[in-house]
């Protein structure tokens, strides 16, 4: 074998190992497009289609790549990337889903009236029905961007998909404000379950749909068939359960819940508020919502917002500069929906009006859609606000004190600088806040994000400080 062929043979060997360890369609999507370039000593260089492609591979398959290279090349193996030149490549299209539309098996339903309808989703009089799971294949885990804002929810959903109904996360109650990805997460869980357990009957329904179906069943004297239908479900996904209002519909749902839960079936709910904050719900139903795991989705942090924008631009097959994506991620902090909508509007305007996608165009588009004004937030303003909030002097905040309160105040200041000031580098933040290096600032931001996810009082500190800075708090 010649030296020029060795890198191809080694990479093909790596591909065989990787293919035996991951889903075939994911292998086709993420590894087949990679081309081996060279092998020098123990360093293998490969060519990837884009920066996003490289980031995704590193994030999703880093451990597998390390083990594979060690096995194929030996100890000390390293992998280097080359990004394929854009001008000689056609734009890549990110897969909208990683599987076909989920389908359920045919389920027998006993109807008690000749003219009865066993399901709100099927025709009257049918004895054996095929229940549409009503899952959108675009809302799969492969298309879901994971970050600190949703990591616990994603982990819980993936664990449930491995063993539905047999984990402590039953029910799984996902709550958070609009546009934070609740529907995507609940559907991704259902899609993953259908992929692993095709014979299970999965159904996605909204709280309002369940209520409407219940009322129609009462009017048509088909309540028995309605209950019989829902009690055949193996995995019940109820989105926006806060809309399930009314004593009758809640009583019906209570009985469905009890039957499914006691039968080892999986239940997943989403809501715009925590179980304790739900209004006009029966106490016995609220207590059951709290049986399993409640997960809050918070406002996406800058890194997650930026990753989502890169993924969506990649899916659209459009090249958008990092300066534009960084601007959008810094400008729109509230939720994924507004962020994605702004990017799509930007692409549409640039395409239809034959304009270049620039920061200036992005600024005009986001101003019309989001209605936010760019705030004059500076490092000095943030430092002064944090000092005022914690009743400490600027000198103390910027000192080398290791007292817990001072350290946390300093970390919050670093976090807010990075989160609220567009294009403010870690090095700049560190230099202004006591001469720290970029690694210290990055550690501070990670620490603040972790504490916000686990400490309600700490999360309130951050929220109060943002309010004092007069930046809209969209958490």
Protein model, in words:
- The chain is 51% helix and 10% strand.
- By secondary structure, it is α/β, with parallel strands linked by helices.
- The protein folds into 4 domains: 3-88, 2-Layer Sandwich (GMP Synthetase, Chain A, domain 3), CATH 3.30.300.180; 106-296, 3-Layer(aba) Sandwich (Rossmann fold); 302-369, Helicase, Ruva Protein, domain 3 (Orthogonal Bundle); 379-468, Orthogonal Bundle (Chromosomal Replication Initiator Protein Dnaa, Chain: A).
- The protein has a 5-stranded parallel sheet with strand order 7-8-9-6-10, with helices on both faces. Strands 1-2-3 form a 3-stranded mixed sheet. The chain has a two-stranded antiparallel sheet with strand order 4-5.
- α11 packs parallel to α13.
- Mean pLDDT is 82; it is low at 86-97, 112-118 and 471-475.
Helix content percent band = 40-55%
Helix tally equals 19
What's the architecture of the largest domain, going by CATH?
3-Layer(aba) Sandwich
What would you give as the CATH superfamily of the largest domain? Answer: P-loop containing nucleotide triphosphate hydrolases
Write down the overall geometry.
Answer: globular
Counting structural domains, the number is 4
CATH topology of the largest domain: Rossmann fold
The stretches of 5 or more residues where confidence is low (pLDDT under 50) are 86-97, 112-118, 471-475
In CATH, what is the class of the largest domain? Alpha Beta
User: What's the main sheet like?
Assistant: 5 strands, parallel
SSE pattern: HHEEHEEEHEHEHHEHEHEHHHHHHHHHH
| Radius of gyration, in angstroms, nearest whole number | 26 Å
- Report the average pLDDT across residues: 82
The fraction of residues in strands falls at 5-15%
Number of strands: 10
Helix-and-strand structural type: alpha/beta
């Amino acid at each position: 074998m010649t030296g020029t062929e060795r890198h191809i043979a080694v990479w093909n060997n790596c591909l065989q190992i990787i293919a035996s360890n991951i889903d075939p369609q994911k292998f086709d999507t993420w590894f087949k497009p990679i081309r081996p370039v060279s092998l020098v000593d123990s360093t293998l260089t490969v060519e990837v289609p884009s920066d996003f492609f490289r980031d995704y591979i590193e994030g999703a398959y880093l451990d597998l790549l390390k083990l594979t290279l060690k096995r194929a090349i030996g100890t000390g193996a390293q992998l280097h990337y080359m990004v394929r030149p854009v001008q000689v490549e056609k734009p890549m299209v990110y897969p909208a889903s990683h599987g076909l539309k989920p389908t359920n098996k045919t389920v027998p339903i006993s109807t008690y009236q000749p003219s009865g309808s066993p399901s709100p989703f099927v025709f009257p009089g049918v004895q054996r029905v095929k229940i549409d799971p009503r899952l959108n294949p675009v809302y799969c885990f492969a298309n879901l961007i994971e970050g600190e804002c949703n990591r616990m929810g994603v982990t819980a959903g993936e664990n449930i998909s491995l063993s539905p109904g047999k984990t402590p996360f039953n029910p799984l109650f996902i709550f958070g404000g609009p546009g934070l990805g609740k529907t995507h997460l609940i559907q991704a869980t259902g899609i993953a379950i259908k992929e692993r357990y095709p014979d299970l009957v999965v159904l996605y329904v909204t709280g309002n749909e369940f209520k409407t179906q219940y009322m129609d069943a009462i009017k048509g004297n088909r309540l028995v068939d309605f209950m019989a239908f829902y009690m055949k479900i193996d995995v019940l996904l109820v989105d926006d359960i806060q809309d399930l209002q009314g004593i009758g519909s809640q009583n019906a749902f209570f009985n469905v819940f009890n039957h499914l839960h006691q039968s080892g079936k999986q239940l997943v709910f989403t809501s715009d508020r925590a179980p304790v904050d739900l209004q006009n719900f029966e106490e016995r139903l609220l207590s059951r919502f709290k049986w399993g795991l409640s997960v809050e989705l918070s406002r996406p942090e800058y890194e997650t917002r930026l990753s989502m924008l890169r993924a969506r631009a990649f899916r659209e097959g459009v090249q958008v500069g990092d300066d534009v994506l960084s601007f959008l991620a810094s400008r729109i902090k509230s939720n994924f929906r507004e962020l994605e909508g702004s990017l799509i509007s930007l692409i549409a305007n640039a395409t239809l009006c034959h304009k270049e996608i620039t920061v200036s165009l992005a600024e005009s588009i986001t101003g019309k859609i989001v209605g936010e004004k760019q705030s004059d937030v500076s490092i000095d303003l943030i430092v002064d606000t944090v000092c005022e909030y914690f009743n400490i002097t600027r000198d103390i905040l910027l000192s080398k004190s290791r007292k817990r309160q001072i350290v946390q105040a300093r970390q919050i200041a670093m976090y807010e600088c990075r989160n609220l000031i567009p294009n403010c580098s870690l090095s700049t933040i560190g230099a202004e806040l006591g001469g720290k290096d970029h690694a210290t600032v990055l550690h501070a931001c990670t620490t603040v994000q972790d504490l916000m996810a686990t400490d309600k009082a700490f999360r309130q500190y951050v929220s109060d400080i943002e309010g004092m800075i007069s930046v809209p708090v969209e958490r």
